[in-house]
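Tokens in:
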């Protein structure tokens, strides 16, 4: 199974449940394919280091992180730098963080749609979104 996961992180979906709770195996999987986090055991979806590796590989992996992790500003910043649309999965207070939203919009102008309403009227953010798209 380890060889298959190292080849294709999404092969984690075929692993037996106990293996989906094996931190080293899941770490290898998310480093290969961030969205393999979806198949990880719930406690691992709350493991900050593991989730950080997942979002660095694919920012959209934030979708599969445990709710408390979605409030971790540094982790969400890494996610939106990789994929601006990961802002969609961030905790609500972070969607109102201007600096974080700016990073998301710099990566993908469409990310502005996931920002808190007041930021959607921020001239600089809107101009950056238009520049990106």
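Residues out:
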């Amino acid at each position: 199974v380890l060889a298959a996961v190292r080849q294709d992180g999404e092969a984690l979906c075929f692993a037996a449940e106990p293996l989906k709770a094996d931190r080293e195996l899941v770490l290898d999987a998310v480093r290969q394919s961030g969205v393999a986090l979806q198949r990880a055991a719930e406690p691992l979806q709350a493991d900050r280091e593991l989730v950080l590796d997942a979002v660095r590989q694919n920012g959209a992996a934030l979708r599969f992180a445990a709710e408390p992790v979605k409030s971790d500003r540094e982790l969400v910043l890494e996610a939106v730098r990789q994929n601006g649309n990961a802002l969609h999965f961030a905790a609500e207070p972070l969607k109102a963080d201007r600096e974080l939203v700016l990073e998301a919009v710099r990566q993908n102008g469409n990310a502005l749609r996931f920002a808190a309403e007041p930021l959607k009227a921020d001239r600089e953010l809107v101009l950056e979104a238009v520049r990106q798209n």
